[in-house]
Amino acid sequence: MGPTGSGKTSLLDVIAGRKDPKGLKSGQVLVDNTTVTSDLRLCSAYVVQNDVLMGTLTVRENLAFSANLRLSRKEYSSADKKMRVDSVIQELGLKDCADTKIGTMFLRGISGGEKKRCSIGMELITSPSLMFLDEPTTGLDANTANSIMELLQKLSKKGKTVIFSIHQPRYSIFSQFDHLTLMNKGEIIYAGAANKAITYFEDLGYKCEPFNNPADFFLDVTNGTILPQIHNNKSDYSVIKKCSSSEEMEENENPLAVIYRQSPYFLTVKDRLNQISDGLDPEVTKGDRVSYATPFYYQLMLVSGRTVRNILRNPQTSYAQLFLNIFFGILVGLIYYQIPHTLPEALQNRTGAFFFLVINMVFGNLSAVELFISERVLFIHENSSGFYRTSVYFLSKVFADLIPNRILPVFIFSAIPYFMMGLKPDMEAFFLYCLTMSMVSLSAVSLAFLVSASVGSFAMANILIAMPYVFMMVFGGFLVNLNSMLSWMSWLKWASIFRYGYNVSALNTFQSNQDSLYVCISAVIQTKFLSSGTLRNVSQLQTLSLTSSLRGDVYLDHQEIDHSTWGFWQNQVALTGIMCMCLILAYVQLCRINRWK
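^ thats the sequence. predicted structure below, dont judge the formating
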């Protein structure tokens, strides 16, 4: 316990194995006289301050998810896991809201106290003997906070060690504490029995009024609001005595911390720690690494199922994506309706339509940047607690997002304008066109996934994803002829999704010699001839129409687009390569997310 910024959460994270050990200068964390590493995170329970739950699932479904992933299939059958979930629901008093959804910003759910109980239940599923909680009463009213503390006290009486940080509890909560550690400015000023803390500070000259809340009194002492009175002569370590000794206290050092380190409380603890350190087995320096309770394929099935269920219960994004693709598909079809084969409309409208389609495929997937950002806190907590592997979460999120939000809407968008624009009435050409649009979309989505896994905020993600999209569009081959660019800049075209998508679309339309574009030229010619009736010269104006054709491969050659069979498929291979590379890098970035607090 301590004021804001005193180091409560930092100390809790250190002993819970949630701080990067590289940042610790000295000291050890021992559990049952054994030095532990960060693996302690996988065999203990840690309840974060802000409840981290899947809002579209019910209380029972969240608890069942934890049970199915964290309880071994060899030791627990499906019936055993169900009984365990029911037992936790009964123990935490969640029976009335067991089948109610947690709640989201669009969906009303359970109360704050019930969310906190559910968060505790997610960890109680594994029956841990050691529990850590970061300010479990924050944001709760007094009555709800008291009920949460009564629950924790009941758990401690059942043999569990419950360690938590708290700011300023009321008296009914404080009276339930067994052990109290007071902190101020990153240092401990008292550690011992909670019911002896007042006596300790009264011996230092501080006076607690009879009706004052002990927690308020301690915070007043640490903040300097209460000054010590004339010290008790029975005390051998009064504040006045120690503060007057400049040899025993350095400049800017916390006097309360100095006094505590010279008190019998600290000396007793120090002697006990020395005995433990001397008897520590050097061969047992690390705890056994805890493996995952369930295999890879089982985790993938459960996490994918939860992801799909979340999408089905929160379908706003999927509906919006589908509606926009249908709308823009019809709009493009109407704008470029039945493109003629006569120049210049034939060439201008076709190339413009292809580039517009590619632009829509790329920029229409900007929503993919929220994939890993929206659930970043949930992923870090569950992954750190040993729910599932990083690869499981990555695959489940990617595949669950691609099918309903990317592949299906893209196919609908591609099919609507194709026949409205009057392109090749050939099924092979149509499927190649759909394949091209799908590959362009998947490549753009993969790049968005990479950005989503690399940053933690939507604002930064939108900036980072817009930059490569704009560069790719410039080097796409439509806005500027790539052959006329400076040589030291032209290499950027090889990284352009727009270029590959545009090239394949042009190849699919212009590659066949049957799809020639025609130009009609009208000329007025004056002719003179001798009239047979009058034998006089007569002038006459005649209009002649000349028709010439422009074969598609001529345009492709002018754009330096290889129209061989390999020229077509090499663009598909390039799109596939961009997609695979971005997905691999996205997974690497997801693995590199800093899980240390």
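DSSP finds 22 helices and nine strands in the chain.
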